[in-house]
Amino acid sequence: MDSTASASLASLWDEVTGTQPDPDLWVVLATLAAALAVVAPHGPWRLSRNAITIAHEGGHGIVALLTGRTLTGIRLHSDTSGLTVSRGKPTGIGMILTAAAGYTAPPLLGLGGAALLGTGRITLLLWLATVLLVAMLVMIRNAYGALTVLLTGGTFVLVSWLAGPQVQAAFAYAVVWFLLLGGVRPAFELQAKRARGGAGDSDADQLSRLTHVPAGLWFFLFHAVSLCSLLGGGRWLLGL
After folding, report:
1. Does the predicted TM-score (pTM) go above 0.90?
2. 169 vs 216: CA distance, rounded Å
């Protein structure tokens, strides 16, 4: 029994960490077009932006934990805003990195996903995403947030367990394209909102107070990370 269980675990590990064939170029281009279709138009973006908010708040949460802060909860709201609360020193490098992680998380996750897909590790990407969503669900503190993460995580589970290799590949590429493209738009939206006198306590404003660096320079960082991730990740996905 033990040897059978060990063999099964070894087989599962090999399946998860192994490589899968790259999809045809037309699939890569079709998933790029699909991602653009839900990021560029305003209507679909209002709904799909919820997934970017999950990555945004997840980025705050992960970095808070990595820098030794105590993560107390995450909330996701129907207007696609979110809030991550952590306890710890209110100043210093830990707080700065935590605040900077939000707008940089979606494009960097997309870049990491593109790196995995570039080496053919489609299954590993799907499983890692599922693990991160399950971990995030534990920290969600409101019903809408829990529903959003459950639906997102459930989609990954269904695709990972029930879909064939071609569907898994198309889904993985669509998700990564979405993170790369969707990671660009929020910083521009926030900058436009601030120009109209809103969002006075944004991540950029918090970072400005923490570091005494103008908020405009933090926006430059957000834009640089998202655009460089899109260019680099896009090259990996397209096999250039």
Report:
1. yes
2. 38
